[in-house]
Amino acid sequence: MIAKIGEALLAAGAMAWQVGWSLVLGFALSGIIQAVVSKARMREQLGRSGVREIALAAGYGAASSSCSYAAATLSRTLFKKGAAFTPSLAFLFSSTNLVVELGVILYLLLGWQFTVGEWIGGVVLIAIMSLLVKLTYPKKLVEEARAHEETGGGHE
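^ that's the sequence the OP posted. Answer follows.
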């Protein structure tokens, strides 16, 4: 019984070690964005759901080189600071699918064809997501989420 508890603690510690850095990175970058980027600037850059804003958010996501934990935190911060819902999601998708470093690794391990396919697939994924959000945009739900964020969600 004690051996099993020890194994469980060891596994928990190993997982904390593996994901801890990404959580710290995500929350640190999120804090920097919250402190440095004004709501007005965020609305100016990503406040609409147009092609330009979605492409810009996808570019920021690809450059962010973050894991899914950090990407989710950063995407929430973008939304909280005034980015529209669709660009926030485009950032989330691209920061896990269009990352430059991932492309380099894919190129080295699997070749240029796979890398190009990965990037084309990522762009197609973002385009489909944008279209689906446009067709099924949950306006009331998004407004409630933004109001919840602006009031601090009970945490500020």
